[in-house]
TrEMBL record:
Protein name from the UniProt record: NADP-dependent 3-hydroxy acid dehydrogenase YdfG
Keywords: Oxidoreductase
Similarity-based family: Belongs to the short-chain dehydrogenases/reductases (SDR) family.
rRNA-binding as UniProt keyword: no
Pfam families in the record: adh_short
PANTHER family per the UniProt record, alphabetical: ALCOHOL DEHYDROGENASE
Stored CDD domains: SDR_c
One GO MF term attached to the UniProt entry: oxidoreductase activity
Length: 234
C-alpha cells in the first residue's frame, strides 16, 4: 500500500519543495492552500511528473477552525497520512506594542491553531497504528528574539513549545515528532528584498532535511532540526 503525506500550504516555498521530495519517493500527496489556480497547477504538474501517485489538492483557509474540519474530513476520505507537515503560515513584520490591530489573531490562528487542530484530527489514528511522523514548521524566530518579529515570533515560539509537548506525549506510541527550525529561506515572503538569492537557503535544502529526518530507523528521532544560511541569519 502506498504511503501518503499531508502538507499544508503546499503551493509555494518549503511546502512545495517537501511535496516534490516525497512525491519522488512514491508518496501520495494531500495538500491545501487558499489559491485555487496555484493548486490546480501544482496538481497537474505532480500528476504529469509522477503518474504513479495520487494527488488531493483542496482550497482551504486553515486560519478558520471550520475550514480545518472540512479539509480534514476530505483528506480522511482520500488517505490515512503517514506523515503530517504542519507548514501553513503567514509572516507580517511588526513590533508587539504597535503592530496593526489583528496581526496577533491572524498569525496565531494561521501559524499555531491550524497545527493544533490538525494534530487533533490525524494523530489519534497514528497512535492506533503505532506509526507516523509529525513535522511542525517553525522558524529561527521561534528560538531567537529579534526586533520587528512581533506576533510572528510569538506564534513560532508557541509552535515550538506545542511540538515539544507533543513529542513527550507520542514517545510511548511510536509516533515521531520533529520541529523544523529554518533560517532565511528564499520564498515568497522574501521577494523584493535587496539581497542576492545566494544569501538565502534553498527550499529544497529544507525539504531534503525533512526527508532525511523521516528516514531514520524506528529507534531514533530528530527532535529539533535547526537549519541556517551558511553566512548566518539575515
Amino acid at each position: 500500500m502506498p504511503k501518503s503525506i499531508l502538507v499544508t500550504g503546499g503551493t509555494k516555498g518549503i511546502g512545495r519543495a517537501i511535496i516534490y521530495r516525497f512525491a519522488k519517493e512514491g508518496f501520495d500527496i494531500a495538500t491545501c492552500a487558499r489559491n485555487e489556480h496555484d493548486l490546480g497547477n501544482l496538481k497537474a504538474d505532480l500528476e504529469a511528473k509522477f503518474p504513479e501517485i495520487k494527488v488531493l489538492a483542496l482550497v482551504a483557509d486553515l486560519s478558520k477552525k471550520e475550514e480545518v474540519a472540512r479539509f480534514s474530513a476530505q483528506v480522511k476520505g482520500f488517505c490515512k497520512p503517514d506523515v503530517l507537515i504542519n507548514n501553513t503560515g503567514v509572516f507580517l513584520p511588526g513590533s508587539i506594542y504597535n503592530e496593526p490591530e489583528g496581526n496577533f489573531e491572524l498569525m496565531m490562528h494561521t501559524n499555531l491553531f491550524s497545527a493544533y487542530y490538525l494534530i487533533r484530527e490525524f494523530v489519534p489514528d497514528m497512535v492506533k497504528r503505532k506509526s507516523g511522523h509529525i513535522f511542525s514548521m517553525g522558524s529561527i524566530a521561534g528560538t531567537t528574539a529579534y526586533a520587528n518579529g512581533g506576533s510572528y515570533a510569538i506564534s513560532k515560539w508557541a509552535m515550538l513549545g506545542m511540538t515539544k509537548c507533543l513529542r513527550e506525549e507520542m514517545k510511548e506510541h511510536q509516533v515521531k515528532v520533529t520541529s523544523i527550525l529554518p533560517g532565511a529561506t528564499y520564498t515568497a515572503s522574501w521577494e523584493g528584498v535587496d539581497l542576492p538569492v545566494e544569501r538565502f537557503m534553498k527550499s529544497e535544502d529544507v525539504a531534503e532535511s525533512v526527508w532525511g529526518a523521516y528516514n531514520l530507523s524506528p529507534q531514533s528521532v530528530v527532535e529539533e532540526l535547526i537549519i541556517r544560511p551558511q553566512l548566518g541569519d539575515i
